[in-house]
Amino acid sequence: MQNSSAQKQRSIYSTVVSMLNKRFGVIAKASPMILGYARVSTRDQTVALQVDALRAAGCAKVLTEVASGAI
């Protein structure tokens, strides 16, 4: 029987995977991988430096987003 900590981690993992699938169409792999997320708030900005830093940190996949700064 799994302890509650392991069950909680599995539940969190499932929730995160579900959110990523909905937002970015990411398909979860059987083996763990480090995902990165780079975001800028305006189209005048670039995610290039963030992506480079995330890849250098070991991220296997980097998701990017450019949001409009308008509310």
From TrEMBL:
InterPro entries: Recombinase_CS (IPR006118), Resolv_N (IPR006119), Resolvase-like_N_sf (IPR036162). The active site is at residue 41. Keywords: DNA integration, DNA recombination, DNA-binding. It comes from the Bacteria. Pfam families: Resolvase (PF00239). Residues 33-71 form the Resolvase/invertase-type recombinase catalytic domain. This is Recombinase family protein. The lineage of its organism: Bacteria, Pseudomonadati, Pseudomonadota, Betaproteobacteria, Burkholderiales.
